[in-house]
Fold each of these.
Amino acid sequence: MKRLICLFFCLTLLLPAALAEEAAYALPIDFSGGYKPNPAAYTKDSYEDASLSVRMEKRDIDGVRYDIAWIKVKSPTQLRTYIAGTPDNEVAEKPGRMARAMNAVVAINGDFYTQRNDGLIIRQGTTIIYDINPEKDVLVMDENGDLHAFLGSDTQVQEIVDFLSAGHTIVNAFTFGPAIVKDGKALPMPDTYQTRFDSAVRAPRTVLAQVGPLEYVFAEAEGRNAISKGVTTDQMGLFMESLGVQTAYCMDGGNTSILLFGGKYYDSNYSDIERPCSDIIYVATAVPNP
């Protein structure tokens, strides 16, 4: 019993320290970028400073090249989004330019929301579209940096309302999908998604995933090139499950799919052309670089 009391006392001491550290590295929840990364913090396949750790990896499995970024941050505000224009001005921009403008250490394309007129689309606390389509899965990023997948169903709207009523804040929300991992398990694909988004076709796929608190994975399955034939969403879900993620969600894929590290391509899909899109998801350092 004394040991349990001692353990509880130690944990109560550590919690305020962890919260203080998180606050110390908080970035504003707006469309500003992070600090410029420290060039000395980069290696060929990693970046690490006091606020951020990124480890890049490539895996070749059954004719598919997977590009992976393993990410740990000190503050949920370091997982950020950026849009090419303004909420009331729909434009497209090359992801590389957006990533460099925001000082992104690592970045992926978002859901290309300007291609649709419905869904729940929120970026950095700003609501762009609020017209939920219950046939589509929604991914929400909350105030703690946790990812929540709300699967398409007749109860989806109420589930989101209940989520907000419980005191949560939606910092970012995406409508593309499908969600491919929930509670650590790969999800079977609904027929409607297979029809609407060609989920059964091998193609490049971009995924945002969470492993645990303030720990994420950006992943891309390359396709349509000489080294990789692409994947279906079922295959991508099984691969993400094998990585041990708890939640995983598909962003726009195909010619939009991209993974950038240090402002440069980490994949092979963009050797000749980079497709402009409406938004990116990125991670930034919260340490000023003198």
Amino acid sequence: MRKKVLHTVLYIALTVFAILTLAPVAFLLINSFKSQSEIVASPMSLPLNWDFDYILTASQEINFFRSLGITFIVTVLSVALIVLASSLAGWAVARAKTKTSSVMLYMFTAAMLIPFQAVMYPLLSLFEGVGLKNILGLIIMYGGFGLSLSIFLYHGFVKSIPPSIEEAALIDGAGMIKTFFTVVFPLMKSTTATVIILNSMWIWNDYLLPFLVIGNASSRTLTLELYFAKMTSGQFGNPWELIFPAVFVSIIPIIIVFLLLQKHIVRGVSDGAVKG
């Protein structure tokens, strides 16, 4: 009886939590099909007419397909860089077992505590000086900022892999690089999925770094297009009939990626937290 009561309480708590989590998405959805006057008059009610013209107009205002392509390229290349560099680094640090590797791990872990604002201006000045205040520089910056947490996760998982598996591959004649990509990396599937999801969501939705690096250039990410569309639309107040549908269409791709890979998140985080 006590167990059933606990389960009931748990289900109720989880249901309430789920409702609170989905409420902003539902609010965004229902207001994406309303006019400005209807949103202001009754923001919580369902639209009287589900008009898709607002979404089409918003897509045109934010140059959806162009900005989507730019955001996709930046996200994919940045995440690929993070996965490649952090998986190799996590594996090397975990297998080295020297004082130097321990210090490097502590440095990577400590780097997670340093806020971006602390290095923002020196970093931008450095990249501007070498001519990398552009899309390429943005990708490199994302690759650097995403390393710390990713290396921490990969390092924890590699410690759970028996070294004998790699030794067998080396005995069979495989080199270090071939051993990593044919034996070790395939075993990191769940951790890699977690790294991809966490970094993709962060990079896709980030506003500050693209604003500082790209600014008001012709090639803008979705978040920048949302910002400049808001700044140039409407003479009075906030253009809600543009903001809501624009935000809605911009988050659809990353939601799809999350839904496809969500089953790996908990497993990947737990695998990356293994203590050796």
